[in-house]
Amino acid sequence: MTSPLIGGAELLERAVGYTLGSLVLVRPEVLDRPTPCAGWDLEALLRHMNDSLVALHEAVDSGHVTLEATITGDPANDLVAQLKDRACRLVGAWTTTERSTVSIADQQLTGAIVSCAGAVEITVHGWDVARACGVDRPVPDHLAAELLQLADLFVTGHDRPERFAAPVPMSPSAQPGDRLVAFLGRIP
User: Fold this and answer.
1) Longest dimension (CA), the chain
2) Highest mean pLDDT: which of 77-86, 107-116, 165-174?
3) Of 1, 54, 127, 171, which has the fewest Cβ atoms less than 10 A away?
4) In Å, how far are 45, 79, 133 from 24, measured between CA atoms?
5) H-run or E-run covering 102
6) How do beta strands 64-65 and 107-110 pair?
7) Full strand arrangement of the beta sheet holding 107-110
8) How far is residue 87's CA from residue 47's CA, in Å, rounded to a whole number?
9) Could you give the angle at which helices 111-132 and 141-154 cross, rounded to 10 degrees?
10) Is 23 exposed, middle or buried (0-12, 13-18, 19+ CB in 10 A)?
């Protein structure tokens, strides 16, 4: 029997694959560099990414997210190694689950929605990591086009300006990856 989350899990897997490619760029000397997210340096972003992966793993394991995860870790190598390990284990957990719903705070969501939202976050933060490391690493067109269709479901006016900056104006003919990061408040 095919898992009801296979579409979301497959998207999550591609998001993780893209982001793992960005994580290889991280070196200890770049941890204090700013990211495309105002007020965040790379180390803070990596810690946030670890927290997010813990929450996504909690969602698939228990069907509930507490929203209280905090990761402690050492500088770059340990933090990045921890993040890579979590990301790979997360993909494995989502591709083998049959969990159909996840409770986040007082909301009941489908597992597919949670894994797709995770894919959006993981991808955009992979892009942020590359930018903080001084590398232009566009989100692959096919992945970005799929995530762009989902992004406006997950990022609304209520999320701005706290979680995401205002969308950056972008031509509809721009590459899907540029449109995705622009929608999420980044300058491509």
Assistant:
1) 48
2) 165-174
3) 1
4) 15, 12, 10
5) strand 101-104
6) unpaired
7) 64-65, 101-104, 107-110
8) 13
9) 120
10) buried
6-142: CATH topology is: Four Helix Bundle (Hemerythrin (Met), subunit A) (1.20.120)
Average pLDDT, the chain: 85
Domain spans in the chain, listed from the N-terminal domain onward: 6-142
Q: Are 65 and 54 in contact (CB under 8 A)?
A: no
Phi/psi class of residue 105: alpha, beta or left (left: φ > 0; alpha: ψ in -120 to 50)? left
Percentage, residues of the chain above pLDDT 90: 52
Give the model confidence (pLDDT) of 61-103 as tens digits: 666 677 654 445 445 558 899 999 999 988 888 777 766 777 7
Out of 106-110, 117-121, 176-180, least confident range: 106-110
Structure tokens at 21: 């490619």
Task: Give 3: exposed, middle or buried? Use CB within 10 Å, 0-12, 13-18, 19+.
Answer: middle
